[in-house]
TrEMBL record:
GO terms for molecular function: phosphatidate phosphatase activity. The keyword Transit peptide does not apply. Residues 193-218 are annotated as: Disordered. GO terms for cellular component: actin cortical patch. Residues 1-20 form the signal peptide. Residues 198-208 have a biased composition (Gly residues). Keywords: Signal. This is Phosphatidate phosphatase APP1 catalytic domain-containing protein. It comes from Penicillium canescens. InterPro entries: APP1_cat, Mg2+_PAP. Residues 275-420 form the Phosphatidate phosphatase APP1 catalytic domain. Pfam families: APP1_cat. It comes from the Eukaryota.
């Protein structure tokens, strides 16, 4: 595999000094067509590369190059990060593929993906954001699940996996092949004080308190969408709950959808002021390697979810040392695989509310906007709270949107903490742009390599930079592939492990050559799917 990558990057280097048209013969044997391609408009007159974001603005040019190559590369290639959780079947497509008729579906029990909500305090009382999906789980045979699971496994088969990994692959595949229920009324939701206040039902964590009151039944005002989703704020009665303007502690309620075989979660009643940590999950809380498709798929579909380094200890320390801390976990993976993520988080990290990608956000452009959409909703719901954003550099939308949000919501973004995945993982070949951080105060952000770099930070007072972790920022493109850029530096914590890439980019790379380079890298990546 390494030799194939090397050959692909040699091709990329050659292409960087050649015209992007006509298509080079080296790519004549491109991968077969993917039926979920989302086309982008062609940019006939691209502006200079130095004025554009290589991972988002250049997307249409990359699509143009790929089209010229006659390839059928999937649409996630142009986003800069392999999005292998893309194009899952839903609803009628699942029923058809499994040979289910209306009578078969009617006989199945109704399940509810009840995603852990947050609630805010207003002059009218507590408002809970109930969200999730109503679906039915077909009784799919083991042999059928094996065949379906093999589609997601690269260079291996479910028959070659250890029993525990084969079981996990089947379970996750079963989560994907469910039948969402459109225009369905969500059954009555029952609320009661949560018995456990922390991770894995343990007391403490996240500034929680012993909740009293709140026992009641709630009816949602709307039916599900055509994708089976529901997402709405609903006011609840106090019934003994502490008013949000009279406490700084988070109250928690058990949330259960009646008559659903699966449908439990915990609601987090978050006061107007305090600190909220909004945390990404993949490659910051768990080892995923989304930038290496083969490893990313096997880590997600077969191998047990594994915490990245000692991040559970870091979060546990934050939850006990910072008063009234609220954790909000966010992943851009689609709802079908959310349950596995929630089970992993609540077994290893402090309890907290949760967000995932709704089913109506299905193509690449939507995937690259959903994170900001969900975070902005949290910001607007809690305009007086301070936020600490934790993620990694492998996501182009994070690198673009997080520094922007620090200026769009002045006074709310207290810290931005980003793991530099390419600084420690040679498999991360995707470039990222740090230019958005140029005008931010260094005390409000930090790029780091290891979990222990996050110790000794004064997050409560907005000091988010561990001064023992050099940054060496050039505020431009970092991690450019194929040797484009200076020699990597070994400085620990450096956000710019590739050196002064921006100068070389400005002097040596034209728009067409860089587009061709990205296209070659994308093709090399797709060869392993």
């Amino acid at each position: 595999m390494r030799s194939t990558i090397s050959r692909a990057f040699v091709q990329a280097s050659l292409l960087s000094f050649a015209s992007a048209s006509p298509a080079p013969t080296a790519f004549a044997n491109a991968a077969p067509a993917d039926p979920v391609i989302t086309a982008s408009p062609v940019q006939h007159n691209p502006s200079p590369v130095v004025a554009r974001n290589i991972l988002s603005d250049v997307e249409s040019d990359v699509d143009n190059v790929l089209s010229g190559l006659g390839s059928g590369l999937p649409s996630w290639v142009a986003s800069g990060v392999p999005n292998f959780f893309q194009g899952f079947p839903t609803g009628d497509a699942v029923a058809s593929s499994l040979g289910l008729n209306d009578d078969d579906l009617a006989a199945l029990p109704t399940n509810v993906l009840n995603i852990d909500p947050y609630a805010n305090w207003t002059n009218s009382g507590w408002n809970v954001r109930f969200h999730g999906n109503v679906y039915k789980q077909p009784n799919t045979s083991v042999s059928t699940l094996n065949k379906l699971a093999d589609v997601f496994l690269v260079n291996t088969s479910i028959s070659d996996l250890p029993k525990s990994q084969a079981d996990q692959a089947r379970n996750l595949t079963a989560e994907i092949f469910v039948v969402q229920q459109p225009e369905a009324a969500v059954n009555t939701i029952h609320l009661q004080p949560a018995a456990g206040q922390g991770s894995s039902g343990q007391p403490g964590g996240g500034g929680s308190s012993n909740t009293t009151g709140g026992i009641q039944d709630v009816t949602l005002p709307y039916n599900t969408t055509v994708e089976g989703d529901f997402d709405t704020f609903v006011p609840i009665s106090s019934k003994g709950l502490t008013a949000g303007n009279e406490t700084s502690a988070i109250q928690r309620l058990d949330v259960h959808v009646k008559n659903a075989t699966i449908g439990n979660s915990t609601a987090y009643l978050v006061p107007p002021t305090g600190i909220t940590i909004i945390s990404d999950i993949d490659d910051i809380l768990r080892v995923t390697k989304i930038y290496e498709p083969e490893q990313g798929l096997i880590n997600s579909f077969a191998r047990p979810f594994t915490a990245w380094e000692n991040m559970p200890d870091i979060y546990r320390n934050w939850s006990t040392s910072l008063p009234d801390l609220h954790f909000h976990y966010l992943t851009t993976t689609p709802e079908q695989v959310t349950r596995s993520y929630m089970e992993f988080i609540y077994a290893n990290y402090p309890g907290g509310s949760f967000d995932t990608r709704p089913l109506n956000f299905s193509d690449v452009s939507a995937t690259l906007s959903i994170r900001k959409f969900l975070i902005q909703k949290v910001f607007e719901t809690f305009p007086e709270r301070k936020f600490i954003l934790v993620a990694d550099t492998s996501n182009s939308d994070v690198m673009r949107d997080y520094p922007k949000m620090a200026t769009e919501f002045p006074g709310q973004v207290q810290c931005i903490l980003l793991r530099n995945t390419s600084g420690t993982d040679s498999g991360d070949k995707f470039p990222y742009d740090t230019s958005g951080f140029k005008d931010l105060n260094q005390s409000n952000y930090m790029f780091f390599l290891h979990a222990d770099d996050l110790t000794n930070l004064d997050l409560a007072n907005g000091d988010c930079y561990n001064k023992s972790i050099p940054q060496n920022l050039t505020f431009s493109y970092q991690g450019l592939p194929g040797g484009l850029g200076a020699t990597p530096t070994s400085v620990n914590g450096s956000a710019n492990h590739t050196g002064a890439a921006s100068a070389l980019l400005k002097e040596s790379a034209s728009a067409k050559s860089l587009v061709a380079l990205v296209a070659a890298m994308a093709t090399a990546t797709f060869m392993f799917l």
